[in-house]
Amino acid sequence: MKKLAGLLVFVVALAAAIAVTKYYSTPTQPKQPQPPAPAAPTASNNVGVNVPVTFKTQLVTLDFANRKAHVTLSLERDPARPAPEKIWVWAYFFTPDAPGRYCAGEPVEVRQPFASGSHANLNVDSDLIDCAAPRATSLTYYARVNVSSESAFAARLGEPRISYDITQASPATVEGVQPKRH
C-alpha cells in the first residue's frame, strides 16, 4: 500500500510540474501582426530583385579535351512578374566513382534571357576549372545546375548545399576523354 501511495504522489507531482511548465512557457503577449508582403516590383525597379525562375536541365556535355561544359536549359518565369534583366547559371559535376568530389566553372551571366516571352531555351558554355579528365572512358558524370536572377554569388551553391544524389542530377555526356594506354 505504501508503494502505491508513493507512486500516486509521484504521478501527481509530475502532472503538476508539466502543467506549471506549460503555463509559464506560453507567451503572455499577443503576437505582433506581420507586415504585409511587399508589392511585386514593376519593370522599372526590378534591377537587383530576385525574380523566381524555374528551369529544367535538358542536356549537359563535358568536353574534357577543350575544358568546357555545355548546358542546355529550358526556363520559365511567371508572366505576371517582370522579367529579370539577367540571370546566372552555375553547374557542378561529379561522378559516383569519386565520392565527395566535384568540379565546376564560374557562374555564367545571361543577359535578357526572356527577351521573347516568359519561356526561353538557353545554351550556356562555361570553362571547366579543376576538372581532371577521367582515367577511364566508362565513368559516368552527373551535373547539378542552379539558376539565380539575383547574382553570380547566389547562383553558386555553398559546400553545405552540394549534393551527390544522382536521382536529383542530370547525366552528363562526356567527350574528349582519351583511354589510358597500358
Brief summary:
With 182 residues, the chain is of the alpha+beta class.
Structure report:
This protein has 182 residues and is an alpha+beta fold. It has a domain at 53-175: Immunoglobulin-like, CATH 2.60.40. 15% of the residues lie in helices and 32% in strands. It is built from 2 helices and 8 strands; from the N terminus they run H-E-E-E-E-E-E-E-H-E. It has helices spanning 2-25, 152-155; strands at residues 53-63, 68-77, 86-94, 103-104, 108-111, 119-127, 141-148, 170-175. Strands 1, 2, 3, 4, 5, 6, 7 and 8 form an 8-stranded mixed beta sheet that branches. The radius of gyration is 27 Å and the shape is elongated. The chain starts with a helix and ends in a 7-residue tail after the last strand. Residues 28-48 have low confidence and may be disordered.
Reconstruct the topology from this structure.
Layout: H1 2-25, E1 53-63, E2 68-77, E3 86-94, E4 103-104, E5 108-111, E6 119-127, E7 141-148, H2 152-155, E8 170-175
Q: Main beta sheet, described?
A: 8 strands, mixed
Question: Which overall shape is indicated by the principal axes computed on the Cα atoms?
Answer: elongated
Count of separate DSSP helical elements: 2
Q: Which structural class do the helices and strands define? A: alpha+beta
Question: Cα-atom Rg, whole angstroms?
Answer: 27 Å
Termini separation: 86 Å
Q: Under the CATH scheme, which architecture of the domain at 53-175 would be assigned?
A: Sandwich
Q: Mean pLDDT, rounded to whole units?
A: 79
Give the topology string: H per helix, E per strand. HEEEEEEEHE
And the CATH topology of the domain at 53-175? Immunoglobulin-like
The total strand number stands at 8
Helix share bin = 10-25%
CATH top level of the domain at 53-175 is Mainly Beta
Regions with little confidence, pLDDT below 50 for 5+ residues: 28-48
Strand content: 25-35%
